[in-house]
Specification:
By secondary structure, the protein is an alpha/beta fold. The protein is built from seven helices and eight strands; from the N terminus they run βαβαβββαβαβαβαα.
Length: 170
Amino acid sequence: MRKYDERKKNIRTPAAGKIKILVVDDHPIVLDGLAELLNHEEGLVVTASAGNAAQAIKAVKKQRIDLAIIDMLLKNTTGIQVTKKIKAICPNMVVLIFSMSDELCYIKQAFEVGARGYITKDELSEKIIDAIRKVLDGGIYLNKRLAKKFKKHEINQFLADYSKSVANNN
């Protein structure tokens, strides 16, 4: 059995013409599982994985990444902080938050710092792929269950404001 710290941080997979993905999670089984799932999807490839913020920043500086899938609750930091740091380096990188938490405060903060989607870890694999495709196509992803937690007018206004800010930054 290999120690987590000794794992390769960059996954070697042919990436030409594919969407290059960084997965950030402090649980090795999640990193491996997402990589396995995504690497079997046409047009997607996980080219880097990170167990913490420093590794994520290093990966972003080292290679071109199109999409970062970031866990909300990492050891010693949050996905919010990691997203802020990544967006400061690569403002156009697409970020999808992948979390166990369905707390409204986290969801709002994720969108406020530039995430294009928020998906919980209890979703089916197909929904994760749907979320990835939607955010890569320029959309915003928030499943119906999470959207229902917001007051109807609140989520519509929030997403409308967010869409305007994204359009103005592109």
